[in-house]
């Protein structure tokens, strides 16, 4: 598991931040300490998002490491869409889209990953019994 330093703004997480929107003009809001501070001007207020650093979860393969999951904290303080205005964890599986995830969603994902890990152990044992590749 590795993290990325996305070079936050100098004042990221230290007090209020102002984002200039096309529908509400300047919007000033508190910035969480985990936010990297990448806020684009000239968007819509409901699209403002606080985003934390990405964490990569990679798995080893016979051809080198491959991305399994990418995740980051996010909050959309003015949205009217799911998952609402609270903090959530965004998860990308492989190179797919982002999936906003609640704690329950993350526990479900973890359970499925654990099940997949158990299946991989069964496959490895099966291959060993067959005298497969070493």
SS class = alpha+beta
What share of residues are in beta strands? 25-35%
Helical content (DSSP H or I, runs of 4+)? 10-25%
What is the approximate shape? elongated
Biggest sheet descriptor = 6 strands, antiparallel
InterPro entries: DUF6907
Region (Disordered): 1-48
Biased composition (Basic and acidic residues): 37-48
Descriptive notes:
The protein has one helix spanning 103-129; strands at 2-3, 16-21, 25-30, 50-51, 55-59, 66-75, 87-93, 98-101. The protein is elongated, with a radius of gyration of 20 Å. Mean pLDDT is 89; it is low at 2-10. Strands 1, 4, 5, 6, 7 and 8 form a six-stranded antiparallel beta sheet that branches. Strands 2-3 form a two-stranded antiparallel sheet. It has two domains: 2-101, no CATH class; 102-134. With 134 residues, the protein is of the alpha+beta class. A hairpin with a 3-residue loop joins strand 2 and strand 3 (25-30). The protein has one helix and eight strands, in the order E-E-E-E-E-E-E-E-H. Residues 1-48 are annotated as: Disordered. Residues 37-48 have a biased composition (Basic and acidic residues).
């Amino acid at each position: 598991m590795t993290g990325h330093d996305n070079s936050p703004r100098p004042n990221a997480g230290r007090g209020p931040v102002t984002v200039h929107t096309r529908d509400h003009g300047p919007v000033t809001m508190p910035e969480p300490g985990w936010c990297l501070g990448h806020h684009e001007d000239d968007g819509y207020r409901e699209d403002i998002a606080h985003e934390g650093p990405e964490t990569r979860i990679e798995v080893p393969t016979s051809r080198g490491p491959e991305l399994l999951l990418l995740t980051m904290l996010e909050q959309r303080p003015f949205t009217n869409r799911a998952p609402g205005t609270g903090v959530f964890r965004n998860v990308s599986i492989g190179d797919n889209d982002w999936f906003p995830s609640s704690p329950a969603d993350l526990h479900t994902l973890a359970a499925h990953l654990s099940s997949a890990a158990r299946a991989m152990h069964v496959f490895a044992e099966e291959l060993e019994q067959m005298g497969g590749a070493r």
